[in-house]
Design a protein that fits this description.
This protein is α+β, with helices and mostly antiparallel strands. It contains 5 helices and 10 strands; from the N terminus they run E-H-E-E-E-E-E-E-H-E-H-H-E-E-H. The chain has an 8-stranded mixed sheet with strand order 1-7-6-5-4-8-10-9, sandwiched between helices. A two-stranded antiparallel sheet has the order 2-3.
Length: 197
């Protein structure tokens, strides 16, 4: 079951994209750590994107629930309008319900090459208010969340990877960095820090 898309979506079905292998590798790693996956009701959580030209590739809606995704589970966000609350995407699957949140981060920090959204109640509880945190009034996957992402990114050190807590999305965190490997390692190190406490 896919997550709930809260924006207008213009999805043009097309053949799978090449060059998304790194996204798929990181999905499996994070799935094993239960940072992406599925809730008991079957709804998938977590998504991964990577800058691609002027836009980005992203795991499709509900793909968090898939153990071993492939190219058919990746979408290309061709364009978006945060204030208009709409996304245009191409691929075998519709783009993730968090596409606007990823788009906002790429827009706010042009140096960023990858974004990962995970769910971790433990990390969320540990770092809420201690790391950059979006307003509790901003719901996941909405223009309000995208605006909050754009607000908090400049509050962090320039050109350093980081983590943002999603105040209005319990358990939700966003990591970003200069490469997908760097971004994935940020999440993995945070998970290790939780185990060490």
């Amino acid at each position: 079951m896919p997550g709930k898309i809260q924006f207008a979506i213009d999805w043009q079905k097309s053949a799978p994209f090449k060059g998304c292998e790194e996204i798929l590798v990181w999905h499996q790693r994070l799935y094993q750590l239960k940072l992406v996956g599925a809730h008991p009701d079957g709804v998938g959580y977590g998504n991964i994107s990577q800058r691609h030209g002027c836009s980005f590739l992203i795991t499709g809606c509900g793909v968090g629930a898939i153990t071993e995704p492939n190219e058919a589970h990746i979408s290309f966000v061709e364009s978006y309008d945060i204030e208009g609350n709409c996304v245009r995407c191409l691929g075998p699957i519709a783009a993730s319900s968090e596409s606007l949140t990823h788009a906002a981060l790429y827009e706010a920090a042009p140096w960023v090459q990858a974004v990962i959204h995970v769910h971790s109640p433990g990390l969320w509880d540990k770092y809420l208010g201690k790391l950059a945190t979006t307003a509790a009034s901003a719901a996941a996957g909405t223009p309000a969340m995208a605006r909050e992402i754009k607000r908090v990114v400049p509050l962090q050190a320039d050109h350093l990877p980081g983590i943002i807590l999603m105040g209005g999305h319990p358990a939700g965190l966003i990591a970003y960095g200069a490469s997908l490997t760097e971004t994935g390692q940020i999440i993995c190190e945070a998970a290790k820090s939780l185990l060490a406490t």
